[in-house]
Amino acid sequence: MIKVGIVGATGYTGVELLRLLATHPQARVTAVTSRKDAGTPVAAMFPSLRGHVDLAFSTPEDARLTECDMVFFATPNGIAMNEAAQLLAAGVRVIDLAADFRIRDQAEWEKWYGMTHGAPQLLEDAVYGLPEVNREAIRGARLVANPGCYPTAVQLGFLPLIEAGVIDAATLVADCKSGVSGAGRKAEVHALLAEAGDNFKAYGVAGHRHLPEIRQGLARAAGAPVGLTFVPHLTPMIRGIHATLYARLTQDTDLQALFESRYANERFVDVLPAGSHPETRSVRGANTCRIAVHRPQGGDTVVVLSVIDNLVKGAAGQAVQNMNLMFGCDEQAGLAQVPLLP
Ligand SMILES: NC(=O)C1=CN([C@@H]2O[C@H](COP(=O)(O)OP(=O)(O)OC[C@H]3O[C@@H](n4cnc5c(N)ncnc54)[C@H](OP(=O)(O)O)[C@@H]3O)[C@@H](O)[C@H]2O)C=CC1
Ligand SMILES: CC(=O)N[C@@H](CCC(=O)OP(=O)(O)O)C(=O)O
């Protein structure tokens, strides 16, 4: 059994880890932390986990994390970078669901995240946890940087086109919409029902911190820098990301065949039949990215539609997928959920 600790287990991605790991045949959660709710039984705070999790939250200091085999940080940015080295030295493997180890370039990270990096010596060893790109490196990793939610949906959508070199990678556009759980469980005015409900707005147009992460991943695939306009929007739904991606084709290609062959062996990426329009509810609660590729009126613009559940393939599900790779488990262990509909 893999002994698992979750730092930040009262947040949305932490609770999602608990839900997914409850059915994992080879993992057992042994430590869950919360500073504010230390002492509270998990099932008292989250009745959905009654009968599945028999633990109480403890402070990070009391949680005996070094006795775990695997620790997930489901915490805000800037926490794991100060804790990971000590755990790694004790032989614990670490997955950070936040952004501390996602950007290779320390100065770039510090610019976008507005803080000094606490563990620059770990940046080179950290593996970016997008299995569809980095599977072999993740298998051997001790520290995994779990990708952001928007970056997962956007990269999976653009990758087949970029790898095949059939688009102009200098003029990419990613028009993305997220549900409100993407903002986390902390109390914030903009996420209140009366603010976010019955409303729709863009944000971060001048520059969102996922921009350098997406650019880094796509540039690696392209072998050269890419140009990307990324505009996130907040939609009044709870879970889900819908990314509408635009690129200019530079050569005539069978796009449907290209996407189908790129993801033929990927269990968590589903390329829909030509002409499809994927819906966020078709992946609700599941670790699946569903993709459709279009070429409107046969012109030179390719439109890719990519949907994920931000809390699953966009966070906790992808983290469990990465853990499975790191520990040699079946990649689908704990991740066989059928999406919840309606
Ligand atoms: N929500 C989403 O869709 C996605 C989130 N992420 C990232 O995952 C991380 C977690 O997100 P989410 O679950 O939404 O966040 P939440 O705000 O819902 O939860 C944060 C958790 O971290 C704990 N925490 C906060 N500060 C500290 C600290 N200084 N030390 C230890 N624990 C702390 C909180 O508990 P307490 O304060 O009681 O200790 C809480 O359990 C974030 O970095 C987020 O950006 C990534 C992809 C998608
Ligand atoms: C709707 C919403 O607010 N979404 C968050 C992104 C999700 C997130 O948690 O960011 P990371 O993946 O980098 O951790 C935002 O735009 O800040």
Automatic annotation (TrEMBL):
Cited InterPro entries: AGPR (IPR050085), AGPR_AS (IPR023013), AGPR_dimerisation_dom (IPR058924), AGPR_type-1 (IPR000706), NAD(P)-bd_dom_sf (IPR036291), Semialdehyde_DH_NAD-bd (IPR000534)
Pathway the protein contributes to: Amino-acid biosynthesis; L-arginine biosynthesis; N(2)-acetyl-L-ornithine from L-glutamate: step 3/4
Domain Semialdehyde dehydrogenase NAD-binding: start-end pairs: 3-141
Positions of the catalytic residues: 149
Record EC number: 1.2.1.38
Molecular function as annotated in GO: N-acetyl-gamma-glutamyl-phosphate reductase activity; NAD binding; NADP+ binding
Keywords: Amino-acid biosynthesis, Arginine biosynthesis, Cytoplasm, NADP, Oxidoreductase
Reactions catalysed: N-acetyl-L-glutamate 5-semialdehyde + phosphate + NADP(+) = N-acetyl-L-glutamyl 5-phosphate + NADPH + H(+)
Compartments where found: Cytoplasm
A single BP term in Gene Ontology: L-arginine biosynthetic process
GO cellular component: a single term: cytoplasm
Family to which the UniProt record says this protein belongs: Belongs to the NAGSA dehydrogenase family. Type 1 subfamily.
NCBIfam families xref list: argC (TIGR01850)
Function (record text): Catalyzes the NADPH-dependent reduction of N-acetyl-5-glutamyl phosphate to yield N-acetyl-L-glutamate 5-semialdehyde.
Protein name: N-acetyl-gamma-glutamyl-phosphate reductase
Lineage, opening ranks: Bacteria, Pseudomonadati, Pseudomonadota, Betaproteobacteria, Neisseriales
Gene name of the record: argC
